[in-house]
Amino acid sequence: MTELRPTKYSNFYQKYKNLLLFNKNLILSGRAAFFSGAIFTQLLAQQQAENSNNLLNAAATLLLEYGAYIPLFGILFYLDNKHRYTDPITHQNNSNQIKKAFSMSELIYSVSKILVQYYLLEQNIQPYQSFYGSSACCLGNISCFYQYKYRGC
Question: For 58, which DSSP code?
């Protein structure tokens, strides 16, 4: 009988399991928010064809994005990590750590996303294209923020 040996991939998975699960949750919830936001911004712009309010479009799209992203991410993250954020003695949820980590990045993302999407809509760029452009730009801002904040660059 052959002995099952751990492969380099299973060692990699065991070493970075928490990071991979966290990123999986971000990717799934981010995709849901991304596609729902792109569809919504285009539909809203088509409905407001005569008197378009680009600031309203950008703000409403951000609200819908968060309406899809935050609950879905919260549920997925909780299901994967409920044992880590529950006090074993009192069985109370102690998730303040994750809330603090996201608050600053979400603030940066929200403000920059509305401003960039509004600017792109004002330049008569198609609504779905302005959504994609602002999302990509703002995710780049968040990446730079994390590198500066946590790596000391």
Answer: H
Q: Are 37 and 131 spatial neighbours (Cβ–Cβ below 8 Å)?
A: yes
83 in a structural domain: yes
6 is a domain residue: no
Domain housing 130: 18-151
Digit-coded pLDDT (tens) for 74-90: 788 778 767 666 666 77
- Per residue in 91-149, pLDDT (tens digit) is 666 666 666 656 777 787 888 889 999 999 999 999 989 998 888 887 776 666 555 55
Alpha helices in 2-126 (DSSP H): 8-15, 17-47, 54-81, 96-122
Phi-psi region at 152: left, alpha or beta (left = phi > 0; alpha = psi -120 to 50): left
- Write down the residue that tokens 């399991």 correspond to: 17
What backbone phi and psi angles, to 5 degrees, belong to 66? -70, -35
Long-range contacts, stretch 102-108, CB < 8 angstroms, 24+ apart: 104/145, 104/149, 105/142, 105/145, 105/146, 108/138, 108/141, 108/142, 108/145
Q: Is residue 11 part of a domain?
A: no
